[in-house]
Amino acid sequence: MAGIFEFAKGSFRLITRGGPAYAAWVGALLVGVVIGLFGYAQQFRAGLIATNMRDQVTWAFYIGNFTFLVGVAAAAVLLVIPAYVYQWKPIKEVVILGELLAISAIVMCLLFVLVDMGRPDRLLHIVPLLGSPNWPNSLLAWDALVLNIYLVINVLVVVHILYAGYRGRPYNHRFVIPLVLASIPMAVGIHTVTAFLYNGMAARPYWNASILAPRFLASAFCSGPAVLLILFQVLRRTTGLEIKNEAIWKVAELMAYAMFFNLFLLGAELFKEFYSATEHLTYTRYYWFGIGEHRALVPYAWGSLVASLVAFLLFLIPKTRQHWITLNLGCVLIWAGVYVEKGIGLVLPGMTPDTLGEIYDYTPSLVEWTVALGVFCVGFLVFTALVRVAVPIMSGTFRHPGASAQPAVP
Amino acid sequence: MNHDPLPEVEVALAGRTPAGRRRFLRSALASVAVAGLSACKMEEFLGRNYRELSRDELGSILARLEQKHSAGYGKAVRVGNEAAQPGVDFGYGLDLSRCIGCRRCVYACVKENNQSRTEPQIHWIKVLELNKEHGVDLGHADAYYEADEVPRPGHFYMPVQCQQCAHPACVKACPVGATWKEPDGIVVVDYDWCIGCRCCMSACPYGARRFNWAEPNLPKEEMNPDTHYLGNRPRPKGVVEKCTFCIQRVRKGRYPACVEICPVGARKFGNLLDPQSEIRQVMETKRVFVFKEELRTEPQFYYFYAT
User: What is the ipTM score, two decimals?
Assistant: First the structure.
């Protein structure tokens, strides 16, 4: 028990103290959180009328961000599979960072759902036993369940491994391995269920395509690791953490394959829509070309496609994949491309035109921008705090006084 | 059947049914006095799902609502809870060849059902102006035409409201069971259980559901005091609402307000199970169709061309 207390105290010290760069980073995030809180206070008082969502477009920026972040959370699996199943050394060292990212991403997901709710005070109505979740029919009821289970699994694994590392003990394989094995289908599960949330709606032909869930997975396998690749480089430079070059390049290579698959599925979908050219083409056309003067999404659509294509080429060619400038450029492009594709590029064309043919050109309101900023800052704060504690444990500098000195890498 | 009072013997067995388990868990939670909340506060905080209330509990909730709204609107407000009549399944008919697009139904509905007047302006009925050349093609629909100039040559009018589907996509999508289909065919919303996630609005193929984006704006003097718990009682901010065929009227044998107001008699209403009803006459003598038939939602709202 004393060990846990010491651990908590030590972690608190690590999180609250740091150099000027760290203080500036955390300070900036806190400012973002405060801005977000102001925005949310305004929304809470006025109602969701403070957003630009209306009856025609009932889900928008918040739910788009939620969807994108489910993908980021699911992507931890990309690193977990080779590390745990194939006992592959170079990536195994950094899997824990992927899991930390998953935890932060899920926190952001849950917050984005919360800020989108008309009645956040009734959140407990969806909780089993306390409320009345509509199983098995409602996909949102399932989504809430699987996201929370995924969060709990990742928290358990991370806390156990880190605490064992802190005590200088090997982690308990009988505890960790089954949970990690469970987290692999869960990661696929959270993104599939989220895809089904859209996919199941016959009223929205743009979403009602069976290719949706595979596309979700393919794009997630690009966007999640893109964050990690940049993070690995930052941590290598700022901490004693050793991350091998070949680990980074391997992840980049896997991302190239995932992006190829993602683009292929997009092509398959576009072919079907344009060749058959039924009434359902309307939504795809709105996204890519606009309808009449309604062209709000067109630049995003093409920008996202170009970003994804360029990133695919950069990651496919070994020379550019292994060059730091082009590698990081690729990461940013992938992030941008998938952010549009799985965010507004998914949600808005699904609802425009609406089910009675009306076109409402939605753009996020100032309140939506500030609330989204706040949620992202909370997520990055959570991630920063987790990394701040995890890295010294992994490199062996944050240790229980009584623990043996050798580093305990997961 | 959902509102039967819980018999004494069954109280001991609470925990056997999902509702019982919830009740048990709630009182357990309440009794450990989470964060100093009393049991009553906890219940209030969690809210109550209409379908799990006993008759006594519902009675006290209705009384509390009546008291609250009577005080708030300065008139004697009645919050009714008339149940579905056995042997009744409501159906609606709309004669597209008669409708002139005057929107009187829209405003009669707003008045009867206590919708928010402005900010947000909520209409349960939306009348589409369609092009005769294109027929029922939503790509050419206009909901914002000038009602003073109707009917415009070359156009016809199609009012759309909740289709009270036999297989409602909205009910399936709701994550908390706050909306359901009543035995008489009416799809209702429990405004005290809805979490405002708007899944139902994404799922509805008819754009029939409306959201209270802000605190509804219902002037005292315009408030209709004859209300129903599942229908036109005043709604809070942040929940979904929709047409209920005027549940507060039709369960007492009256016509929906839109049927009553229609100046050209385009709207028909009745019991689908009664062979003598007006709606059955329409179905047997006219060529009827349902909107977006390919989605298999099976609306209980039938469009037809009488002439």
Answer: 0.92
